[in-house]
Please model this.
Amino acid sequence: MKKEDISYEILRSNLSYLDEEDIKLIDKAYNFANEKHEGQRRRTGEPYIIHPLNVAYILTTIKADKETICAGLLHDTLEDTETSISEMEKEFGKEITRLVDKINNINISTENEYLTSYYKKIIVGMSEDVRVIIVKLADRLHNMRTLYALPVEKQKKKAKETLEILAPIAHRLVMHKIKSELEDLSLKYLKPE
Model:
């Protein structure tokens, strides 16, 4: 059995709080993302689909709704594959497509203190739907867990962005477990001592 199949079974076992119709939609999103990311690999060497699967799994630990989990599975398909917005809308409707599109429009930088403050306000303000931020936090959490695969300079940049922007947002959203792990992983790369 492939690693991605095992990962999907682990994700599915965590969906007991959803009904069968919700799970069918999540199955459809997984199959769509798996097909679209076919042949792509992460820097860790794993098949790319492992990342969206982990993002979706993180979302199940906070009992996210079906749309949020689908957005977690699909979050990189618009950005990293040939998938169009119209194709995604046809398959998953406007709500899930809007979530995925907004997730892709969140950019983060910590070039200076003003920008850090500005990005915190923009991220929270631009998201009339908090689920966009929640998927972004789950996405960053999994990326931080695999940060070792990036060059040292990128590790430090991502860790700084996470510590200064995303961990405080997780705190504001009362997502303490995610906030703590984001901080711990950031400090591992910024201040390993």
User: Anything to note?
Assistant: The radius of gyration is 16 Å. Residues 167 and 179 are 5 Å apart (CA to CA). The chain has a mean pLDDT of 90.
